[in-house]
Amino acid sequence: MNSTGFLRFACALACTALISFVSSVHAASLPSLAAQGESVFGRDWLVKAADNVCGLKDANQLSNPAVVDYDAVLAATPELRKLKDDKIDPASPEGIRLTNAGADRVSQACEAVRTATGHCSVWKAIKHRDGRVIPDITDRVKAQF
Questions:
Q1: 68, 137 in Cβ contact below 8 A?
Q2: Cα torsion for 11, 13, 19, 21, to the nearest 10°?
Q3: Rg of the chain on CA atoms, in Å
Q4: Could you give the CA distance from residue 14 to residue 8 in angstroms, rounded to a whole number?
Q5: Is 143 helix (H, G, I), strand (E, B) or coil?
Q6: Which end of the chain is more exposed for a tag (fewer CB within 10 A), N or C?
Q7: pLDDT reported for residue 138
Q8: How many Å separate Cα 72 from the centre of its chain?
């Protein structure tokens, strides 16, 4: 190998090592979007991964999603009404059990309404780039209780 070929090889190797180093430092310094609950774009949808209640989770696959007022629906569950009526501390073991049972009930009710109405997924919050109104199924989910 002549000196010009060697210099090209050495430069290419150095550039590759530098790019690899910079990429690894940059990736390590940024937490993942899903871990932060950051907004994630699909083709036309703006969603947060943590806002998915049931159905499709990949924003690129969405076609007919629905939205639900999760806090209102959760508060309407028998478990959360018991928590409030009996003045149970939400941080106590019984409060945590009731809250988890209420969340499970909400997920099951959302799934039942989703399949009955033909929606691909249910979200706590979702927006479309063109500003269209997303169907709200809150009342139908509450009726499941």
A1: yes
A2: -120
A3: 24
A4: 10
A5: coil
A6: N
A7: 98
A8: 19
Question: How high is the pLDDT of residue 81?
Answer: 97
Mean pLDDT for 26-54 is: 64
Name residues whose C-beta falls within 8 Å of residue 114's C-beta, 6 or more positions apart in sequence.
54, 55, 66, 120, 121, 122, 137
**At residue 99, does pLDDT exceed 70?**
yes
β-strands 66-67, 52-55 pairing: unpaired
Can you read off the two tokens belonging to residue 95? 């409060």
Element holding 75 (H helix, E strand): helix 70-75
Give pLDDT, residue 49: 93
The tokens for 18 are 């530098």
The pTM for the full model equals 0.69
The 8-class DSSP code of residue 61 comes to G
Please report, for the chain, how many H helices and E strands are present, in that order: 6, 6
Quick one: what percent of the chain has pLDDT higher than 90? 69
Tell the residue number behind the tokens 């109104």, with chain if given: 133
Laid out side by side, the sheet with 66-67 consists of 52-55, 121-123, 66-67
